[in-house]
Amino acid sequence: xxxxxxxxxxxxxxxxxxxxxxxxxxxxxxxxxxxxxxxxxxxxxxxxxxxxxxxxxxxxxxxxxxxxxxxxxxxxxxxxxxxxxxxxxxxxxxxxxxxxxxxxxxxxxxxxxxxxxxxxxxxxxxxxxxxxxxxxxxxxxxxxxxxxxxxxxxx
Length: 155
Known about the structure:
- α1 (about 10-20) runs antiparallel to α3.
- By secondary structure, the protein is an alpha+beta fold.
- The protein has five helices and five strands.
- Helices cover about 35% and strands about 25% of the residues.
- The protein has a five-stranded mixed sheet with strand order 1-2-3-4-5, sandwiched between helices.
- It is globular, with a radius of gyration of 16 Å.
């Protein structure tokens, strides 16, 4: 990975993510409708311990520079196990080259080989670099919209 190493981690990655990268992730990928970030590390760790989530850490010189959280859930409409990327991020200064593609390849392999899924689902912030990348390498499934039920945009 050109000096980068992707390792599958346990809950240690979620703690490192929270400490090292959560502010940068929230700034770039946060949805204003949700307000300020409030990462529930304990819930991530519980889901990880249940075996339905894996954390991937992206490292450069032993420093965590990116992450992805992959969950496998039963899709009730199709009675099949579907992998979903809950979050994916690589620090801006480490986005040169094909690191994002390599991380997505790792997610696809993990979804298929570890969880036994046939489908991997990902979302990306509208207009982001990730959205542009996914539009070139994945099949568009749908558009995602959010309603703020606290009064704004509610009807």
